[in-house]
């Protein structure tokens, strides 16, 4: 092999990784970088007027609190319910595991509009099956206004979000549980460890990276969630279930592009905080496993 041929071969080998990454880089630029940069340019070009108007809105404090409660509540509920489902499916005493897993995945598979509409009927004050069941059991004296009481409406729609996202957590945790060797459980039981000790010292540490991924994913989904709240309450009553995506859409309906860009930038900033936190947590886990 001549020197020239060897140099060409070396150059081709060096350029191959770049060519493999190039499609993903272009796709990321088109779908993420360009929209984010465009949003930042719009906010900066108007001198920050959109941000000033956003924080001068009379209900901006309630919107941020709603977004916080909505995100924390739906993420915590989805994680707990998903964990419970995964642990039940992991039980040796459960039969027809595949059938149960398929049925539990239905809320995550069906379109969000369909799920929100079903829950809107279920939570209806006048003809909802949930109120009828509670009345028949004598647990309430009168129908609960799930979607029209400002004090509980946000938690009612968060329940729908939990119902939709918990199957994703269940699927991820089930996959993580399958990677734990059976010998660990047997050794722990031989040492006299109970179920809680196994959960604390074997299961939870083993699925910690999966938990981080689930928390970040559910938080991003909650921060960007629109369909469930819009179909169920449209952000009402009196803004009690209005979160940032609903506020953004209402500004879009009013043709207020300045406010739309400002709300979008705030959402990007909040999402970036979660992404940085997730990256640091994942890096720490990888370093601990070395």
TrEMBL record:
It is found in: Cell membrane. The keyword Cell membrane applies. Keywords: Cell membrane, Membrane, Transmembrane, Transmembrane helix, Transport. It is a multi-pass membrane protein. Its main location: membrane. GO terms for cellular component: plasma membrane. Belongs to the binding-protein-dependent transport system permease family. This is Sugar ABC transporter permease. It comes from Streptomyces paludis.
């Amino acid at each position: 092999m001549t020197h020239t041929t060897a140099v060409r071969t070396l150059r081709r080998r060096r350029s191959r990784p770049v060519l493999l990454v190039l499609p993903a880089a272009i796709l990321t630029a088109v779908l993420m970088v360009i929209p984010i940069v465009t949003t930042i340019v719009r906010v900066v070009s108007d001198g920050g007027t959109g941000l000033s108007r956003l924080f001068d809105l009379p209900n901006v404090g309630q919107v941020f609190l709603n977004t916080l409660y909505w995100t924390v509540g739906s993420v915590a509920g989805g994680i707990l319910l998903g964990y419970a489902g995964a642990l039940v499916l992991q039980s040796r005493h459960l039969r027809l595991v595949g059938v149960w897993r398929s049925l539990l995945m239905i809320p995550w598979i069906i379109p969000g509009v369909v799920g929100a509409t079903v829950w809107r009927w279920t939570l209806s004050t006048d003809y909802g099956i949930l109120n009828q069941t509670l009345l028949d059991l004598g647990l309430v004296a009168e129908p609960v206004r799930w979607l029209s009481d400002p004090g509980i409406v946000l938690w009612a729609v968060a329940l729908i979000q939990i119902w939709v996202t918990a199957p994703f957590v269940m699927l991820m945790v089930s996959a993580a549980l399958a990677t734990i060797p059976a010998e660990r459980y047997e050794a722990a039981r031989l040492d006299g460890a109970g179920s809680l000790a196994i959960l604390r010292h074997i299961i939870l540490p083993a699925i910690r990276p999966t938990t981080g991924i689930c928390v970040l994913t559910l938080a991003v989904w909650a921060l960007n969630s629109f369909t469930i709240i819009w179909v169920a309450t449209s952000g009402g009553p009196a803004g009690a279930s209005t979160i940032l995506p609903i506020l953004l859409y209402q500004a879009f309906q009013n043709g207020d592009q300045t406010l739309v860009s400002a709300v979008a930038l705030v959402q990007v900033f909040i999402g970036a905080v979660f992404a940085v936190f997730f990256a640091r947590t994942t890096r720490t886990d990888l370093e601990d496993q070395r």
